[in-house]
User: Fold these one by one.
Assistant:
Number 1:
Amino acid sequence: MVLSLLLISLVMSAILGFVYNATKGPIAQAGKAKELNAMKEVLPDFDNDPAADPKEIDGMVFYKATKADQLVGYAAKTFTEKGYAGRFDLMVGFLPDGTINNVVILEQKETPGLGSNMTQPKFKDQFNSLNISTLKDKKLLVKKDGGTVDAISAATISSRAFCDGLQKAYDAYMINFIDPGFKPADATSGSTKPAKESEGGKQ
Amino acid sequence: MSNFKYFSNGIIKNNPTFVLVLGTCPTLAITTAAENGIGMGLATTFVLVCSNMMIAALKNFIPDKVRIAAFILIIASFVTVVDLVMKAYTPDLYKTLGIYIPLIVVNCIIFARAEAFAQKNAVVPSILDGLGMGIGFTLAITLIASIRELLGNGSIFDIKIVSEQISTILIFILPPGAFITFGYLIAIMNRLKQKYSN
């Protein structure tokens, strides 16, 4: 009798311990917004509250992240209007030297199965640890436009728009936080030029 | 009884809310919005299925003398699981349901099914019974909540149905509205039962 109760208590407390551990993290985060979660994904480890001091530039929002009062990077909430289905929002994390740390797609309504594939690691992870300043003309371009970015197949417009969003954030980041004399690449070429489609006429 | 009968038993014939009239505390308290009804119903269903399964599996292992203590241990653990998971993943709903999540522990439906069904039956029928009872409970409280939300707030699932200009019957959102709705629904259920059992 005692033994069976003891065993049941043991098993149930093991289950509880497991669930407690599994939900501890999410519960701590639950009160905070989706954006803060996105920031955590795009930035290296930080210990301040970036959302406390947002800085708005041209419709984009920059959040400063520090660890032990040392700057670890900025998270930029950026967007593009050039998507196949209009605007979509991205969160991109920049290291202090302008290197992209990671990108998270906050909101998008691109064609499911085509443009929406930008949420797949296969596409978006190619930007990780990329520094736009190392690219030709400091411009992020898809291969089709003479750049280095592997576009999503049959979704070049979405891929270009993605680059556009990152480029805007990068340029604003460099000018406002790193080097006031920074000269962004010519805005009329590359990712902003009108798209000429050949791949199935889609995106 | 076939497996399907174990499952369907709780949905209409022995609906825990309208026929057995068990677990009326959450039924009356949280049914102010249809979304709450679904949330509460699913949480209860999860606990019901898990506890029924566990108790049916352990029925030969639990001595009769301490079965109540064992049942409470099992049920309380699963309720805590639901509590933690909801807190983590549906914080808004968790906030609305508040104290009624931990109070699933004392929901008579769960205890009644453990005592009356799970400890006398095999695992699979017990799971089906828990599922049927849970779904019956979910449907019932969602129905009550939808009626209350519609009459008291002019919306269902937060979607406005009645124009803003028309004043709603506020009392349906308040506790008395719960009793009124509940009473009418039980009356309708009884009437339908009479009609179709003949």
Number 2:
Amino acid sequence: MSTSALLLMVIVQGSVAAATIYFFLKVLKSPVRHADKESSNHEDRAE
Amino acid sequence: MSKNTEGWGSRVGLILAMAGNAVGLGNFLRFPVQAVQNGGGTFIIPYLVSFLLMGIPLLWVEWAMGRYGGRYGDHSTPFILDNITKKRLWKYFGVFGIFTNLGVMAYYTYIESWTLTYTIKSLKGDFLGMPIDEVGAFFDRYVDLGSAINVPVWALIAFTVTLSLNVYVLSKGLSGGVEKVAKVAMPLLILFGAFLAVMAISLGDTGRCLDCDSHLGLNFLWEPQLDSLTNPKVWLAAAGQIFFTLSVGMGTIQCYSSYLKQKDDIALNAMSAGWMNGFVEIVLGASVVIPIAVGYLGLDWVKENAGFMMAFKTMPFLFDQFGSVVAVLGGVAWFGLLFIAGITSSLAMGTPWMGFVKDEFNWGRKKAALLLGVIIFFLALPTIFFFGKGVFDEYDYWTGTVSLVVFALAEVILFAWVFGMDKGWKEITDGADIQVPRFYRPVIKYVTPLFILIIFSSSLFKPLNGELDDWGDAFSHWTGSSTEQFYFDRGSGQWLKIRIDSDELLQWGGAAAGWQGTGRRMSELEDQGSGRLLDGSGSEIIQRSGWPWANDAIINQIFHINSGVQWYANGKPTNMLFIDLSRFLLIGVFVGIAFMVKVASNRRKKMLHS
């Protein structure tokens, strides 16, 4: 591979991977903030 | 109003399901091919710019619309749009958000069933030792391509099994079905993708031909060719890819996010799911098909043959070259990966219908899923039986391409201009776990709609070839002040652009037999007796006024301007007849859903007054 192609690949793939990991970790670390019964709709409808 | 009490079990589950919705076959097949055809490494620059200026804004808009609709108990786009504005016609734009999914799911589940069959066949080692021609022929036999009406028995059985699997998962609901599948499928997909990428990168020079080196494939994909940055065609291709890869303009994102709670974050969730899709596409998708194909077949072969069907007609042969054990592992990883990418998307396509009938007609999950299965089965039959007549591609064109752009344009205008950016911005930033840059406020209002409008208009009126100078030349030709010469090939029914330099003829575009893309002398095309211009197959080439439509321009597709309407030839039905019948069928589906929306709307009014 040429240096310019390798450089572009590493930069782009590295940045995209970093952004993916960053946002996913942020999701995992964000506190669960609500427990209001009013808007809770986690229960599936009974058949 | 709605008794629909579905919901997500966890935030991670939602993000994986949302990423699974976006990650599809296109991440591994469409993206690398688009990159190859549009400047290699440079394609990534307009791609990323489109992601930032159109993809992310559209994701936020759709997530926000969905959560907003969910607040009022609506989980499908007709009534989500109806909540945003009470102008009654908008809900009929929302029909696209169900129609598109039904249409795409019909042919997409068929492809998904191919991947299931190929996974099993790879596991059994059926492709071991098979020459490349035989692999291609196997596919043709599998879909029964040679027959007048394709009746592929095994493909039909595999399709029914795949569809049943989709129906079963959907009948289990969001947290009990879709989310559970996503939580297992997405990590597995990344694992398979990483395994294949390692295979491709470690392949290197195979010595099969002069340019048989997987690194050359990577080099071709990533070599910056900065001159193509000024080519609008590359930008349009990149923007189009962003559309398809993120599954925006379909109504599935709104549906998924409508099950969020009012104070749930959407800004970070959308970013996480969007970038996860980007990771699968740019890091994994770009590192599998092209490098492996170049490694064994060479760069020239790939440049000429890169396309969707490589997945089935070429990849089994390529895996076989690694040796029998790796061939089985690679085949299972590849087709398993495609199956996972497919099913996580097709499940998402089923949910708007499920949400709609549960909200409006109080149907149970099982009934809704079962009827969805029946609709998809019958809707898919024309794509199976008339696969060779172009019906499959027709579904893809109208439901999987045009409808997405129309709906995305409508929804972003509705959100930014009708709902208003003040309220819209509040919806996006409410409960956000990240700081949303204010820069995106004007982007959503002006740049994103303009971006989509340009994509749509350029597809609507696309002239032959669609390059920037073609627009100018086409306009000159249309107004009669042409300096460039557009000709019309009567035989192939398409325009040709011909430039003559001192009797040297350069031609590009069109596919007139025998002289595609080569420099030929005008005199070589002239029939010595009559002085008429003839193409390689003896058909006459004439000068013709008017707009030189590209064959894939939407207007040309609708009215068959170039080819003319011809349903029968020599007493036999032409492909055009089947294509037009499939269009009527799709229009019928759209009208049917619109009718259901009308009935639902009347029911709502009655309930309101009673």
Number 3:
Amino acid sequence: MTTSSNLLWLIALPLFSSAILILSGKRANSWGHVLATIVSASSFTIGVVEFFAMHGRSDANRAVTQKIFTWISVGSLNVDASLMLDQLSICFVLLITGVGTLIHVYSISYMSHDHDRRRFFAYLNFFIASMLLLVLGDSYLNLYVGWEGVGLASYLLIGFWNQKPAYATAAKKAFIANRIGDVGLSIAIMIAFATFGDVSFAGIKEHADEASSTQLTAIGLMLLLAACGKSAQFPLQSWLGDAMAGPTPVSALIHAATMVTAGVYLITRSNFIFDEAPIAQLMVLVVGGITLLFGAVIGMAKDDIKKALAASTMSQIGYMILATGLGPIGYAFAIMHLLTHGFFKASMFLGAGSVMHGMKDEVNMRKFGGIGKFMPFTALTFGLGYLAIIGVPPFSGFYSKDKIIETAFNAGGIKGIALGMATLLGAVITAFYMTRVVILTFFGNERWGHKDEPAESPALMLIPIGLLSIGSIAAGFIFSKGDGLVNWLQPVVNPLKEHHAEEFLPPIIVSLMTLVAVMIGLTVAILKYRGDQVAQAPEKVSVLVSAARRDLFQDEFNEAAFMRPGQSLIKILLNLDYILIDGLVRSVAATSLSAGVRLRTLQTGYVRSYALMMVIGALALVTTIWVVTA
Amino acid sequence: MAIANYLYLSAILFTIGAVGVVVRRNAIVVFMCIELMLNAANLAFVTFARVNSNLDGQVVAFFTMVVAACEVVVGLAIIVTIYRSRRSVSVDDASLLKQ
């Protein structure tokens, strides 16, 4: 395998910059954002250079590694802190640094009124560094470091405005939900070490077929738990909606384009485990299927534009997770959807941020309306992202989502039909709720209730949106041209190993069905939301709508099923500790205390009583000796 | 005279000494009772030396006298000091260590 010394710089640059921004304090206020953006752009440049270098090599030699230092060397456990850049990670590197840089540029303007902008950029850089470490680590342990790092960055950035208690709570909620997933990942690493005596991807891949299916299933399920936490999949999805408390660029970068897709990366990276563990793979499908419908249903009812987009993110990642569950052929499509989603969802989030900028931080879509003519560029780019996400050809979402639906239908048997119908239903609902978002925001009557007209955002915000829009138009076509991305990823995810089942439905039929599904959703939304709307959300709504507004009761469920029993358990344990453990210690103390009090009375201080005791003692001794010897 | 009579005398003297230490309050008397016990022991040593027809017991008796002499020096010094500070030689008055 080729070695390269550039990989460390990818991570080190943003990490150093983050440290500098944190440590130099207010002195960096004037130049901090510039440094952060330049550093992010440099990482992107290194990524591009590495990509072209990789592209120039033959398939077998594309992966490069760099050993930084020997991290752990204890007995049979040898872990190097080393990085590996292969065909899969380069996709992520380019996405993270590329979209990351654009969002840095956007944030310069978006956060310009915030006196803590320097800290914001420090966190953003820290996020970039952690996320790069996550995708570049060559073992599960290295990945875990990055995994925790992005969790921390996410926590810090969701709670960036932590002076509002609700935002601080949202950050904690995200962190705790992520912790549950992290526990899954650490258990998976432990099982992997117990099974293979190794935690590196290459080592485990080599020996994956030697392990028993129980062990592989256990590792797979734990990895799935980890993915559920980080990628906001059912049943750990409830944090993502609240995570929208963070500044909008954060929502775009971390909670739409990159960090939340780490679960998809983890499963794709662990393809050698999931391919050998059918039960775990089936669970991946179930989780993906449930979440894609779950998110879509929630998305239909949300009035907060960011929360609607967050629900949509959840649903789209559901698509990706479902695709990774479809086996070798699905991984490449999952990554393709991940990349196109990174473009169009980031562009829509930034568009939403631009709208909020113009509307004085209003997020309620019921109070928007008719913004299109005041903010034409934002409306145009948002529209392009919209066409991409609902899957209208030739926009990027069409290519990636269509492939997933097609693969789902071809999974074979009842499973294939069920998955296919789920993805198709998801497409209908996606078209519905995204159309709803677009109509409520950019069309119809003006409902914002004040005279100030929203003004278009400054160029520094519009340029990144524009560039991302180009991605949402063209990415799908580029990736799928001549099966480019599939062939590119083939050495990593090995799709040719799959024995191709007979095609259930030909691609053209699936495409037509998808288009019909999209048209249905779109038409229903237009019929429902055309004409003038009122600024108030209707009070009397069906059970389903009120359930969707409350995230399908996931919070209530978590509270009833985990939080309350957890609290009672803690109370019981506390009492047990107080009565049993403390009681034991306290009774020992009380016994020795009372013994002391009693024994103290022997010490009268009178010499004569001591003498008497000596006499009695001596007599007793003599008597004993006499009795024993006699 | 039966040799056992020396031992009876020694036992009686020792008992008188021991009882005196326990019941008397005056430090000087207590002190004298201790001397009495030491000498009772000496008498027993000398008697046993006689019984065994060697000088071991007599040698130990000399050691005891030396120790007793040292003890008298230290003991009387303590008693005098206590008397100077407390104007009393009652051993019951010198019971402050219990606090």
